[in-house]
Amino acid sequence: MAEYNLPPKTTVSWQKRIKAVFIALAVVALYLWTFLGIDIEWGRAIERISENFGVVIPKLFNPDWAVTREVTAKIMETIFIAFAGTLMASILAVPLGFLAAKNMTHPVIALIGKWLLSANRSFPELILAILFVAAIGPNAFAGVLAIAIHSTGMLGKLYSEVLESIDMQVVEAMEANGANKIQILFHGVLPQVIPEFLSYAIYRFEIDIRASSVLGIVGAGGIGTMIIFASMNRNWNEMGLILLAIIIVVTIIDTLSAKIRQKIV
Amino acid sequence: MSKQNSQPQASKAPSIYPAKLKTQVAMIFLAILAFYLFSMFWTQNQMTGGFNNALSNMKQVAEKFFPPNTSVVSNVWGPLSQTIQMAVIATTVAAVLTVPLALLSARNITTSKSLYLSVRTFMNVLRTIPDLVLAVVFVGLFGVGVFPGILALIVFSLGILAKLISETIEAVDMNPLEAMRASGGNTLQVIFYGLVPQVLPQFTSFVLYVFEINIRASVVLGLVGAGGIGLILDRELQFYNYPNAMAIIIVIFFVVITIEYISSKIREALV
Questions:
Q1: Across the interface, which of B133, B141, B260 has its CB nearest the CB of A214?
Q2: N or C: less crowded end of chain B, CB within 10 Å?
Q3: How far out from the chain centre does Cα B94 lie?
Q4: A32 to chain B, minimum CA–CA distance in Å?
Q5: Which of B177, B141, B170, B263 is nearest to B214 (CA)?
Q6: Which residues on A lie below 8 Å from B125 (Cβ)?
Q7: A128 and chain B in contact, CB less than 8 A
Q8: What is the pLDDT of residues B109-151, one digit of tens each?
Q9: CA quadruple B64, B70, B74, B79: dihedral positive or negative?
Q10: Does A194 touch chain B (CB under 8 A)?
Q11: For residues A204 and A145, what is the distance between their CA atoms, to the nearest angstrom?
Q12: Would you call A243 and B133 a contact, using CB atoms and an 8 Å cutoff?
């Protein structure tokens, strides 16, 4: 007679059980609130899609090659916006990253720096773009500023995390040998962080290309301007070409960026 | 003797970087700088009055935005909760749909190479399209409303989630799975008892991360007519009603920060 030895059942403490019940209740409440509150007009959506599907979809896959030149110019502008914005951010984020790193400054300053960076991050690019368009008019430079400011928050946070993970023994050894702050910075800290800083900046460029391609929706330049006009005129052939251009450019930049980042780190 | 000799040498220590690398780095640096200057020139080209004019203008506009009109805040809660509800639904649907897609695009689970490659390529193409562009297309297809917004969020987050989770699946420890297969477990049993326990914490964490992204994305979806708080923001901006717009922006800001804070705390507890 074979006898099986089953592993003993794990015992769960009652605190954990109560916690699990509370979490479950919170999740259920969230879903109840969501599904009772949301009002999806299914009838209208189905009516529209049955009208539009046969018209829009074939047009999307049949790009209007006549606007190739315009689309190319605008997609180049998108790349310029993303590049200028990312480069500004990657430089601005260096001092902020140092400020927000626990091992580089006073912990209180680091905490304040972290808060500032996360507050900065919480502004979506498009909202920033709206503000800058209102301030300096509907042009590509408003987009550059929006991208730069939003990316600074993200990059500053990543930079500070890189700085917090460096080998402090090197720094201590230099301090013990009588190196001054600037020497420590240039010979102890920067060589450890530069590859990762670069890698994050390049990664951010990938994200910013996507972001800057929609900035035109609020008037901040780039291919988004054409997107919003094409959709207003229901010119789906043109939209097809725009989508194709975005897919190609983003794919190329993603691939290049991944290659470069592999080489750096 | 040798100690004394090394003393003057140390001050004239040769550079640790080879000269070739230095010129390479200098060339790359110059190319980046040139491209940057060109980009700056190009993007400022259409600006009327140049940079200085813009700076003074900025000050004027800042005065227009302030003080924010707090009386609109009471009208904001409806669209704002709609925004959050859109993000909740989209994240849930995407989390469910991503399971088969992530399994299909994980190299160690899907053994058919052509299937794995085609799913992966499809997801890669999907991920290149920004969420707002998807929203524009879906608004064109389904008309103005919440539904196209939710759909855009689902498609967009599906791309991110499937990639993150398939990478997690590829990184799991395959030994328990092999042991189960060897002792006669079928595919479903292997997935449920071998794979799921290893992936679940990461899965939950990634879903919360995508929820944060969706909250931020759904805030602006209304700008293209896809529901949520962006709709009223767009309306206020079109009427140049800047104090109202500023009040809405501030509310958005605090809600996004709160949700991100809660979500990041939960994620820290999970992983």
A1: B133
A2: N
A3: 15
A4: 10
A5: B263
A6: 247, 251
A7: no
A8: 777 888 888 888 888 888 888 888 888 888 888 888 888 889 9
A9: positive
A10: no
A11: 15
A12: yes
Q: Are B60 and B239 in contact (CB under 8 A)?
A: no
A251 with A241: CB under 8 angstroms? Answer: no
* Structure confidence by residue, pLDDT tens digits, A165-176: 888 888 888 888
Cis peptide before B148 (omega within 30 of 0): no
Number of neighbouring beta carbons within 10 Å of residue B49: 11
B107: three-class secondary structure by DSSP: coil
Residue type, A168: M
Task: Provide the ipTM.
Answer: 0.80
How many Å separate Cα A212 from the centre of its chain?
11
Look up residue A224 and give its two tokens.
Answer: 């988004």
User: Which of A31, A119, A135 is the closest to B57 by Cβ?
Assistant: A135
Contact B235, B166 (CB under 8 A): no
Look at residue B173 and give its three-state secondary structure.
coil
- Mention every residue, 6+ apart, whose C-beta is less than 8 A from residue A260: A202
Is A246 close to B130, i.e. CB distance below 8 A? yes
The answer to whether A217 contacts B43, with C-beta atoms less than 8 Å apart, is: no
What distance lies between CA B72 and its chain's CA centroid? 30
Please state the length of chain A.
265
Cβ–Cβ below 8 Å for B142 and A34: no
pLDDT digits (tens, 9 = 90+) for B68-105: 777 777 778 888 888 888 899 999 999 999 888 888 88
Of A38, A217, A231, the CB nearest to B140: A231
- Specify the long-range contacts of residues A107-113, CB closer than 8 Å, at least 24 apart: A110/A160, A113/A156, A113/A160
